[in-house]
């Protein structure tokens, strides 16, 4: 008998998800293990179900495309998926990839992400912890 698979494993089943998925950069991924996020990024390499992307903060992130809705057709994309951590390095199992453009200033994107996650805004406007804490328990 095989041992149970952790919900934060890239081998765990990916369920349909329609809830909150805050935009993040690579350095924020460890805070969202087992949760869904949206990662704006530049595609660095694609290879048989695996994409290597550069997040807005310059971090390199592995994206598993097996559950993704389609292959990207632009250089810059947003990857929505579940953050997993099999070997101590956060990776994303994509469920949706959205084409953005072939020309994007990731430094500006990163500044916006940092504002979203700043203590001043993260739960008053953007509900960053919405997957962990239901909105009605915050008051």
Automatic annotation (TrEMBL):
Name of a matching Pfam family: Rep_fac-A_3
Any one Gene Ontology cellular component term annotated for this protein: nuclear lumen
Main location: nucleus
Oxidoreductase listed as a keyword: no
Keyword vocabulary terms for this entry: Nucleus
Compartments in which it is found: Nucleus
The family this protein is said to belong to: Belongs to the replication factor A protein 3 family.
Protein name: Uncharacterized protein
Species whose genome carries this gene: Rhodocollybia butyracea
Upper taxonomic lineage: Eukaryota, Fungi, Dikarya, Basidiomycota, Agaricomycotina
């Amino acid at each position: 008998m095989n041992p149970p698979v952790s919900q934060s494993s890239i081998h765990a089943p990916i369920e349909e998800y329609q809830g909150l998925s805050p935009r993040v950069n690579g350095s924020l991924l460890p805070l969202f293990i087992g949760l869904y996020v949206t990662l704006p990024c530049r595609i660095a390499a694609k290879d048989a179900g695996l994409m290597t992307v550069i997040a807005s903060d310059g971090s390199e992130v592995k994206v598993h495309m097996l559950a993704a809705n389609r292959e990207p057709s632009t250089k810059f994309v947003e990857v929505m998926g579940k953050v997993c951590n099999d070997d101590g390095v956060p990776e994303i199992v994509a469920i949706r990839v959205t084409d953005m453009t072939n020309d994007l200033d990731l430094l500006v994107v990163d500044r916006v992400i940092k504002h979203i996650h700043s203590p001043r805004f993260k739960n008053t406007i953007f509900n960053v912890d919405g997957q962990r804490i239901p909105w009605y328990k915050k008051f």
